[in-house]
Specification:
The protein is of the alpha+beta class and 246 residues long. It is built from four helices and 14 strands.
Length: 246
């Protein structure tokens, strides 16, 4: 849905009186679609499996525990969609949710839960197998530009909608997305009664759903939300990501 179609949809709904408010709060987003039958190529964007890292790279660990590979994003594949993201480079994301015994050892909100490796010039890459014996299922992902509006009243000030407008609002927001996995936009969740953003100066970088095939289970089957500071993103610094789940 483009911006003109979005505004036309608002005008034709019972939210028409809030058109200007929605114009002000709308954010760019990029939907992530899984392509399970696509060939996994070196350096391509994907969820699960094993990362492509420079030759000689060591597997990242939190204390003595190896991180689990979450996925990688080749920003050259998203460059058409959103200028605030890098135009190139490979970002590999790791999550610290299990130790070698399969027990959870970090909560999603703790520093260090998400580890990132950003490769500005992804050359001389090799696929690095995880320390664990099993490699999780992998799927190629592709990106589609879209827009997003706040998930609920906790994410913005002066929420203007009446109770009888909530269903329409939710339908319109849902129509903006082809997937529950996406970059940027506003974080979405299952049951939180607060704004999961770490605070001013932070933006939502990635929201992903639990997925049985990929062995993802965030907070009992909910969603994982990853955040980055705006200034760090401008400087291509992915060293201090924060997260929440619910």
């Amino acid at each position: 849905m483009n911006s003109n179609h979005f505004l036309e949809t608002i005008e034709q709904s019972n939210l028409a009186s809030h058109k200007e408010y929605l114009r002000q709060v709308v954010r760019p987003a990029i939907d992530i679609l899984k392509k399970n039958d696509a060939e996994v190529r070196m350096g391509c964007s994907r969820f699960g499996g094993a990362p492509d890292l420079p030759v000689g790279s060591e597997w990242p660990t939190y204390e003595t525990n190896p991180y689990r590979f979450l996925g990688q994003i080749n920003f050259a594949e998203t460059a058409f969609a959103e200028a605030s993201l890098p135009s190139k480079g490979l970002l590999s994301l790791f999550v610290a949710d299990y130790n070698s015994d399969g027990d959870s050892f970090l909560e999603a909100f703790e520093n260090g839960y998400i580890h990132a490796i950003y490769i500005p010039e992804p050359m001389d890459l090799v696929t690095i197998s995880p320390p664990q014996s099993d490699i999780s299922k992998t799927t190629v992902i592709e990106f589609f530009p879209t827009m997003d509006i706040p998930y609920d009243e906790y994410q913005v000030k002066d929420w203007p909608f009446e109770e009888e407008q909530n269903d329409t609002y939710t339908e319109i927001r849902d129509s903006l997305h082809k997937s529950s996995d996406y970059l940027l936009g506003y974080p979405s969740h299952c049951s939180l009664a607060y704004d999961p953003s770490p605070g001013a100066g932070w933006i939502s970088m990635l929201t992903i759903d639990s997925n049985d095939d990929l062995e993802w289970c965030w907070h009992d089957g909910d969603k994982l939300m990853i955040f980055i500071e705006t200034e760090r993103l401008k400087n291509l610094d992915f060293s201090a990501l924060k997260s929440d789940a619910g």
